[in-house]
From TrEMBL:
The keyword Hydrolase applies. GO terms for molecular function: hydrolase activity; RNA endonuclease activity. Pfam families: Beta-Casp (PF10996), Lactamase_B (PF00753), RMMBL (PF07521). This is MBL fold hydrolase. It comes from the Bacteria. Transmembrane segments: none annotated. The keyword ATP-binding does not apply. Keywords: Hydrolase. The lineage of its organism: Bacteria, Candidatus Harrisoniibacteriota. Coiled coil: none annotated. Residues 13-233 form the Metallo-beta-lactamase domain. Residues 238-363 form the Beta-Casp domain.
Length: 448
């Protein structure tokens, strides 16, 4: 068996791994490279393999940095099958369509050819099959099973068995504080493992309940008479916020103020969550069986249309606006940040990972002035951060997941992290678990 790394090495994005055995070739993930600009030059470069030779793609989850080049793969000749959980397929359809719109606009601005078109997206969706957790799929000599990664709805750890060996692809692993999804599943054994390292050198702040901190931030902003802006990824982070805001509203822990979900994509994905509630953890399912509508509560407004979004400006503070994108590198949140960042009564609450050089990272790092839509914007609003809302496991959680595998693992490949984070996790794996591990290079091939 040969394993080649075509993305997701020394970077968080672009996840793309090729496995070959007995003439069969499968991919795990086919993600978009994302950076300061959504439209990164790497996305236009040729694949390091012939797309027509790929028999199947197994997708860990719907996020664009894992799925975003699937239509390009189809455009260039892939006609195999894409396998994922059913909610991953449903969410990917919306996320890829949204990505198509953004990429087309930026390609036009930069005078580049399009990466793919709508027909390519529809083509790859027609070759896509949803499979449940724990039901193996055979592709040539490969037997592949999906396990709950606990990262986003339907996210998977992918386990491949071939030639008497077992290799695990962690995908993105979930933060155990997630209130909606079940815990990340523990594997009994594996010979090889690819493990993500987005937070490979960090520990989430668990000293306080994140919902209590959210309550405090809301109350402080209401007292000041300001606007609370929350840049949130459309998938998982927005739904988790709704789940916890519902609890705060229902138990009268926060004042009754307007709460806006100002993201058409997040609204569509919330409908996917409603459709696949059986993938929620037992406590969330119990609430639903008891009649709780966790994504619908007094004061909540879903502003899908542009006119509805613009009307938010006419509503006097205090109010809460949740909008994409999560790193403030696009989307409707930019309009609200331009309007309210200069207001010292308002608050920007950052609840997720902020990529290097993103606007969100600069705001988190304390920038006093930022540029939005070509305008210089003063940052007088308070900027707060709740690390516990990350959808990624931190170093301690990653090590705890690896620990039961330490006696069977021959090698661990540390992937999907900025280089400093990958190096920190690599050192921790070697020092604390005494497992051989390494950080692969782009296009490195290993014979396993």
């Amino acid at each position: 068996m040969k394993l080649t790394f075509f993305g997701g090495v020394k970077e968080v994005t672009g996840s793309n791994y090729l496995l070959e055995s007995g003439g069969t070739r499968i991919l795990v993930d086919c993600g978009l490279h994302q950076g300061r600009r959504f439209c990164e030059k790497h996305n236009w470069e040729p694949f390091g393999y012939d797309p027509a030779s790929i028999d199947a793609v197994f997708l860990t989850h719907a996020h664009i940095d894992h799925s975003g080049r699937l239509p390009k793969l189809y455009r260039e000749g892939f006609r195999g099958t894409v396998f994922s959980t059913p909610p991953t397929r449903a969410a990917s359809e919306f996320l890829l369509a949204d990505s198509d719109r953004i990429l087309e606009r930026e390609a036009e601005q930069q005078q580049k050819p399009i990466l793919y078109n709508h027909d390519d997206l529809m083509g790859v969706l027609s070759h896509w099959k949803g499979i449940p957790y724990h039901e193996p799929v055979a592709v040539g000599s490969f037997k592949v099973s999906l396990y709950n990664a606990g990262h986003v709805l339907g996210s998977s750890i992918i386990v491949v068995e071939v030639e008497g060996k077992r290799i695990a692809f962690s995908g993105d692993m979930g933060n155990s504080l997630s209130p909606l999804l079940g815990a990340t599943e523990i594997l009994e054994y594996a010979d090889y493992c690819l493990i993500e390292s987005t937070y490979g050198g960090r520990l989430h702040d668990t000293s306080h309940n994140r919902k209590d901190i959210l309550e405090d931030v809301i109350e402080d902003t209401v007292t000041q008479g300001g606007t609370l802006m929350i840049p949130a990824f459309a998938m998982e982070r927005t739904q988790e916020l709704l789940y916890e805001l519902n609890d705060l509203v229902e138990h009268k822990r926060i004042p009754r103020i307007p709460i806006y979900i100002d993201s058409p994509l997040a609204i569509k994905l919330t409908r996917v969550y409603k459709q696949y509630q059986k993938y929620f953890d037992s406590s969330a399912q119990k609430l639903i069986r008891g009649g709780e509508q966790i994504f619908n509560f007094p004061g909540l407004h879903l502003t899908e249309k542009t006119e509805e979004s613009k009307a938010i400006n006419a509503v006097a503070p205090p109010k809460i606006i949740i909008a994409g994108s999560g790193m403030s590198h696009g989307g409707r949140i930019l309009h609200h940040e331009r309007r309210y960042l200069p207001d010292p009564k308002s608050t920007l609450l950052i609840i997720g990972y902020q990529g290097a050089q993103s606007l969100g990272r600069r705001l988190l790092d304390g920038a006093e002035t930022v540029t939005i839509f070509g305008e210089s914007v003063s940052v007088r609003a308070r900027v707060r951060n709740i690390g516990g809302y990350s959808a990624h496991a931190d170093q301690a959680q990653l090590l705890a997941w690896l620990k039961p595998l330490r006696k069977s693992l021959k090698n661990v490949f540390v992937v999907q992290g900025e280089e400093s984070q990958s190096e920190a996790l690599l050192a921790a794996i070697q020092d604390q678990l005494a497992i051989h591990a390494e950080i692969p290079q782009f296009q490195n091939t290993y014979v396993l």
